[in-house]
Specification:
- The protein is of the alpha/beta class.
- It contains five helices and 13 strands.
- It has one domain: 4-Layer Sandwich (Metallo-beta-lactamase, Chain A).
- Helix 4 packs parallel to helix 5.
- The chain is globular, with a radius of gyration of 15 Å.
Length: 208
């Protein structure tokens, strides 16, 4: 159920999340971790230091951890590393993972040609979209997801206003803001995001 999956999601700060089921702990883009519980699966969206952080990966990695990432980040990792590109789908420990595009449209930090990623993770039939570092992109119109984790800080990614438009296009049941209160962005961006989407979809602002 949606509520069960929502309760399983923990914000680790910045773009980092953990999703913990009865059998699997999945971590996305760990950075500046306080929570160092071991991960069965680690997803890395792209190679920037605040997403592919070797120090933080070592805190949660174990010998059996499976990584899913794109080719550039894979070069920084060791162990069981599954390299994917946008459009690829795979099943890891019973969890369906789909790689989707993430890129900038009006800035140069995350070029489309780099092939960096967002992910859609399906757990108990609930589809969770982690947008990665992205602007509002046309591919979002074709997404069918239940929970959307969307960046709101601006500078390197969407502004809160653009993230609001993204949520309206995607139409998730629940939206969760991310990419703030670390390098750029503040809790005010998250609050603006939540206020503007009242009546559109549920917005949950998670605490670290």
């Amino acid at each position: 159920m949606l509520s069960d999956v929502l309760r399983s999601i923990t914000w680790l700060g910045h773009d980092g999340f953990a999703i913990t089921t009865e059998d699997v702990r999945l971590v996305i883009d760990p950075y500046q971790l306080a929570d160092a519980d071991p991960a069965d699966i680690i997803l890395i969206t792209h190679p920037h230091f605040d997403h592919c952080s070797s120090e933080d990966i070592e805190k949660v990695k174990k010998p059996s951890t499976i990584f899913v990432t794109e080719a550039e980040s894979a070069k920084k990792l060791s162990g069981d590393v599954r390299v994917v590109k946008a459009g690829d789908r795979l099943s890891v420990m019973g969890i369906e993972i789909e790689a989707v595009p993430a890129y900038n449209t009006d800035k140069d930090f995350h070029p489309k040609e780099n092939g960096w990623l967002g992910f859609i993770i399906t757990i108990d039939g609930i589809r969770v979209y982690h947008a990665g570092d992205t602007d509002l992109i046309p591919e979002m119109e074709n997404l069918s997801v239940d929970i959307a984790l969307l960046p709101v800080s601006g500078t390197y990614v969407m502004t809160a206003a653009e993230a609001i438009e993204a949520a309206k296009k995607i139409q998730p049941k629940v939206a969760i803001p991310m990419h703030y209160d670390a390098i750029v962005g503040t809790s005010e961006d998250a609050a603006k995001f939540k206020e503007a989407l009242e009546g559109v979809c549920e917005v949950v602002v998670l605490e670290k």
